[in-house]
Amino acid sequence: MSQHFSSPPRLIMGADALETAAAELATLGTHALVVTDPGIVAAGIHATVTHVLGSALPTTTFADVVGNPDIATVRRADATRRASGADVIVAIGGGSSIDVAKSVAVLGANGGDIADYEGVDRFTNRPLPVLVVPTTVGSGSEVTKGAVIMNPETQVKMIIVSDLMFATIAVLDPRVVARLPGRIAATTGMDALTHAIEAYVAKGANPVTDALNLGAIEIIGKNLVAASRGDADALYNMLVASSMAGIGFHDAGLGAVHALANTLGAHFGVHHGTANALFLPYVIDFNIPAAPARFARIAAALGEDVAGLDDTQAALRASAAVHRLADETGVPRRLADVNVPADAIGELARDALTQADLPGNPREASLEDLIALYEKAI
Ligand SMILES: [Fe+2]
Fold this sequence. Notes:
Number of domains: 2
Bound molecules: fe (ii) ion
Strand content: 5-15%
CATH class of the largest domain: Mainly Alpha
Low-confidence stretches: none
CATH superfamily of the largest domain: Dehydroquinate synthase-like - alpha domain
CATH topology of the largest domain: Dehydroquinate synthase-like, alpha domain
Order of helices and strands: EHEHHEHEHEEEEEHHHHHHHHHH
CATH architecture of the largest domain: Up-down Bundle
Distance between the termini: 39 Å
Number of helices: 15
């Protein structure tokens, strides 16, 4: 079967990345709509970023993005764009702001309502240019080619996907993540680690995604704990690794960790990275028989000494390393820690079995397998 790798947006990284991006922004349009959320404004990050980007062109800010953004949020942001005359979109934030920004860019070039474009390749005109400034170190949304928008009428999360929906530029600037709270660095960082590990062993993995994911695993293994303790260099390294994993997973696919975690998020509102961290080591052990050599390489990338071990022995060091990272970063380890009762496991497992990420898992997982994996985290 053929394999795929879609080219991601251009990355501008490192010291003065924002200043470099500002010069480029001026070539993309004449007025920017900045899409962000109240937390980013309160933390002063919006001011830091717009102080630099605003030197290049006039900006208008829409700061009303909420978690799990819906159609109404996109409509209000689009109305703000039309009123301002903005012809380029800037996202500052995590996945929610980035998804709203991408959606507004689609409407700016195609008109209509975002619900018209649910699905794959449903619009024809190239969206307005989008410049993305990610503010967490996990989702990878800055480099993926779609958006997820809630439709309250149908209670369905609409997915809008197209190769045309890559952002134009993603800006990875150390200043933006330098004061990220340790708890958020830990949980979003565990999301990035899960992306890289799941994609490295997923059915859609290929040599291009392998290089990105293994590289991301190595950087995360060296920096996650320090990032969770506020080390600014480690936070920037995590930001870069999270984009690498984002590029690495969107064609390779994910697996059972995300199937278990997304279900926990939908039923109990558990933070996405936190939910991934609960299951990652147990799913690694479950998957080892399907790809022992790959998990042995993951163990080595996480810094484990695997000299003299056979593949399966070395592979077990991968889950040991993840247990250690989870303990040292202080993320919740048990379902009870996130207020999920053990008697919910049957229903959770039935829903997880239908999750879109599950078929990418290297080892087929039955309902009984998923129940057993949830039970590991009791
Ligand atoms: Fe994720």
